[in-house]
Design brief:
6-stranded mixed sheet; 15 strands; 20 helices; elongated
């Protein structure tokens, strides 16, 4: 067994000894020992694929959370022992191998772009997109969508998406359908908005389309790419080439290849990360976001873990996981909500992130946000069982929201009642003082409680239409005799004299029926309360 592992490690080292080059564009990185032209041409095809995905889905910018690294081998012999024709997430990027002249695995690449750019979609639509893009035909700037696969691979999901994305009748509107679905619209509304058809009508049309066997092709607008002019090719260090080759190995062979890199090139952070030695990789200067996150998860020091997670988030701002993990390290409810909101924005397809946001919002009594988060979690669920569990949780939140809203309304009613009673109490005290002084005054002399106020008063006659109680203050709305509505403020009820009508007439709310009043007030506008002056005396005339 040891001899086999040693032989595999030696085999892994052979291609890396050759000259390796890299060309980059968008999320794609093409590494090759097959020459600069081969790297540029493959990169151009990958960018044409990305442009085609953009046109069909309607996304202005198509990105990948992780770099997509393609190792392009000169020949099948050189590629022996390496994974080709597929992609796997290794270390801090997608790793896949291709042989010169081999067709890129567009279905796998479509899956990567769906996960990075689209919100949750029903499974049949995602499967349909993968199947339709699997046969994408690219000849420089000529891009054709819709080449039918073998009959055995023409699934119902493929037939429906081929009808909707490729045919002249529907293709121009499929992006509207996808946008509606990823935002949570039900199928009935999404189909109606996109095609003015019901789901049943589309299903029947897709079945007839598949049975007819005559499939259209859709010519897409190719990006104006000149590989020789647009892509710069650089040499790759032997240590990096060796690590990228190790990424294409499996299990024991991969471990042996990473160790061989360390033996040949020293403490390379990429090889250390490949071996799972995250602390050593960080110490060696790793720039891998995944490495820093894995290091954080192994730290018992919370401050150190937080710093490592913040580093991971900075190294890959599109990756939601370090942001999500940071939420669990903060005791502050508001900060936790901020982290979780950002995590769900970065990864709207992750139902567990939405569920955590819902729970945090619920704990903070943010019931509206909690309800929306539960709905989003249910929308992002990937199985009927998970969807049902989240639906029941959403019901619980809604019940708590209703109970909380009712309790809030009850407290508000009690506070309004208390304020009304306080205002009436103040008015009664002022009226009683006037009554006592009138009883003590000489016959024929009316006593009015007053105070020294040098500000001149004005007089207003009209009908008192409404009294708004505002804490210990009150706002009077008077329809004056000249047809204008005037709003006046009682700032302190103990300093206002009320004559002729009884305190009950100043009850809060609309005055039914409105009473004729004469009011003396000091002009002094209050912009916040929209009043024109402060009331000093109110006399009811009837």
């Amino acid at each position: 067994m040891r001899l086999l592992v040693a032989l595999l490690a030696a085999a892994a080292a052979l291609p890396a000894a050759e000259q390796w080059l890299v060309a980059r564009a968008g999320p794609f990185e093409v590494y090759t020992n097959a020459g600069a032209r081969a790297a540029r041409e493959l990169l151009a095809d990958l960018e044409q694929f990305r442009n085609a995905f953009r046109q069909v889905t309607g996304k202005e910018e198509v990105v990948s959370v992780w770099p997509i690294r393609v190792v392009l081998f000169e020949s099948a012999r050189q590629a022996q022992g390496y994974r080709t024709g597929s992609f796997e997430l290794r270390r801090d990027g997608w790793a896949g191998g291709l042989i010169k002249g081999q067709r890129p695995p567009f279905a796998a690449l479509t899956r990567i772009l769906i996960d990075s750019n689209l919100g949750p979609l029903p499974g049949e639509f995602e499967q349909g997109l993968e199947a339709v893009f699997a046969t994408l035909a690219i000849d420089r700037t000529r891009v054709v969508l819709g080449e039918p696969p073998p009959a055995s691979e023409r699934t119902p999901a493929w037939a429906k998406m081929h009808l909707l994305a490729v045919t002249a009748e529907y293709g121009g509107r499929v992006r509207v359908l996808l946008s509606n679905l990823e935002q949570g619209a039900d199928c009935v509304a999404a189909y109606k908005n996109a095609f003015a058809r019901s789901p049943e009508e589309i299903d029947r049309a897709a079945a007839a389309y598949a049975e007819g066997g005559k499939f259209e092709l859709r010519k897409l607008s190719g990006a104006p790419i000149d590989p020789a002019r647009d892509y710069r090719v650089r040499e790759v260090a032997g240590s990096l080439a060796a690590v990228l080759l190790a990424d294409l190995r499996e299990r024991e062979a991969a471990q042996a290849a990473y160790r061989d890199v360390l033996n040949r090139y020293g403490a390379t952070p990429e090889a250390l990360e490949g071996l799972g030695l995250y602390a050593e990789a960080v110490a060696a200067g790793s720039t891998s976001a995944r490495c820093h996150l894995e290091h954080a998860l192994r730290l018992t020091d919370q401050q150190g873990a937080r710093a490592a997670l913040e580093k991971a988030a900075a190294l890959n701002p599109r990756w939601a996981e370090p942001v999500f993990r940071l939420a669990s390290l903060t005791p502050d409810a508001a900060e936790k909500l901020r982290y979780l909101r950002k995590a769900t924005q970065l990864a709207p397809r992750n139902s567990s992130y939405w569920e955590a946001l819902a729970e945090a919002a619920l704990a903070a009594k943010e019931f509206t946000e909690a309800g929306k988060a539960w709905a989003a979690a249910e929308h992002a669920a990937t199985s009927p069982e998970e969807r049902e569990r989240l639906r029941l949780a959403r019901r619980r939140v809604e019940a708590e929201r209703i109970a909380h809203a009712e309790e809030t309304r009850r407290r508000e009613r009690e506070e309004i009642t208390r304020l009304k009673e306080k205002l009436l109490e103040n008015i009664r005290e002022a009226e009683a003082r006037v009554a006592r002084k009138n009883a003590e005054a000489p016959p024929g002399e009316k006593v009015v409680e007053w105070w020294d106020d040098t500000r001149p008063a004005e007089k207003l006659t009209g009908k008192l239409a409404q009294v708004d109680c505002i804490g210990a203050q009150a706002r009077l709305m008077i329809d004056s005799s000249d047809g204008k509505r005037v709003q006046l403020l009682i700032r302190d009820a103990t300093q206002v004299v009320i004559l002729g009508g009884g305190v009950q007439t100043l009850g809060c709310g609309p005055q039914k029926p409105p009473r004729e009043v004469s009011i003396e007030y000091v002009p002094q506008a209050d912009a916040k309360l929209k009043t024109a002056g402060e009331v000093k005396l109110v006399e009811f005339l009837q």
